[in-house]
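WARN no homologs supplied; continuing
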Amino acid sequence: MGESPYQDLVDAGGLEAVLRAACPGCDIDLLDARGAFGGFAATVSKGDRAVKVLPLVRERLFRVRHLLRGTHLSWLATTDLTEVTGSAAAWLGGATARELAAAWPFADFVDIADAYESGDRIELAWQFRRAYDRHDLGEFVEAAMREPRLRRMYPFTSMYWMSFRPTADEYRVPGPWVRSARDGRFTVVAKDRREEPGVTYDAAEAVRVCVAELDRLGVPSPGEVGRSPVRIVPTDPR
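OK structure emitted
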């Protein structure tokens, strides 16, 4: 049958044993995880910090998440067990995000950590979108972050669509909605995704269309929420 891709993990006694050796004095919780090698994911924690580790069963790849006060600051992956244990030990030992990234370059979430510590929920949302592109929106996000009107708004996704709220707590969604059409092209709609037009835009064009739609729909700026009426509230595409 051949050697396991996790033979080093097996030889060391398994995931719990490896983490316990790397992080003495820390709490370790195992959770049944479908798709995990050995059937378990692990959370190792100390104080207000934690690291979650999930070795994928389909291939040799460790999914690693670093948490602070219950907030996930990273969604990372590595094939190197030493990177997993070393970054976990450093983070749980109190390393700052910059110190962690300097010692373990795969674990670079400095911009996210800075936004989190600042308490700026809008900036934190943008940094998450930039770092972890799940819907092929990366080029659009980079362009949108250079547009002051959009950068002041709270970005979020619903299914494969991105839209913007005037504030993190304002749940009326006056649009627009943006979706990747692949190959660096994007679709922009004002209301429901079922009304998707045939035209697509590059990232810079999509940003300009979004800003024009904000103006057309009368979307208030963050400072105007509660004072300016919203004329149109499209359906949240689901």
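The chain has nine helices and ten strands.
OK
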